[in-house]
Amino acid sequence: MTKYAPLKLHKDGAIALLTFNRPEVYNALDAETVTAALAMVRELQEDPKTKVVVLTGAGKAFISGADIAEMHRKTPAQARAYSELGRTFMSTIEQLSKPVVAAINGFCLGGGMEVALASDIRVASEKARFGLPETILGIIPGWGALPRATCLVGPAVTKELIFTGDIIDAPRALEIGLINQMVAHSDLMTRTMEIAEKICRQSQFAVAQAKAVINASVDEALPDACARETSGFVSCFENKDHEEGMRAFLEKREPRFDSGG
Hints:
The protein is an alpha/beta fold and 261 residues long.
């Protein structure tokens, strides 16, 4: 159990499972929860034993959104501070050198979509539901969901989701490319952990290089992105993992990476 009350942390070898744990409000994100989650993700970044972070929610929801009971009282100045807190959390997930996999077990709305979009890989239960219903509340997302969704599913689909406030099911989310995989609800954590375990077997230095290049490529012109990729490629030859990986290939065995430099 983590020391951060609204969260639960379980470590299984190199995988850190972080659970949003406010099931009585469908894991709605209040400032305390966002602050605690930000601190925990920063700690996991510094933990040399953690190679993959898995995010999920307790009960029937992944994250149902922001805590409206808290948010509706905010002044414009307080709303700005809350937006900046959430943006920092999403950027920290996105920029974490370790892959972040979202195991989406139920409602994934508003702030929950923000967290899912900031994650690297999204695996969803067949029971999951997705939406950006902020306009129903007279607001828009404030943590980066609109630009991230636009990059992931395109402007037309993003506009449909935010303009209508519609909630879509998992098959539709898979169809538009919002999620990577949809699985039976009972298989969600098994499949997510399989993906996480497979990532753990790879060179963590190479995975971190790949994540950095892919993330930067979203905002860069193609020549600049390709140059960044070349720099990452060369950096891999400065790290001993490439020697083990190539030797293992030639010796027809599984590589044994430690990513120690």
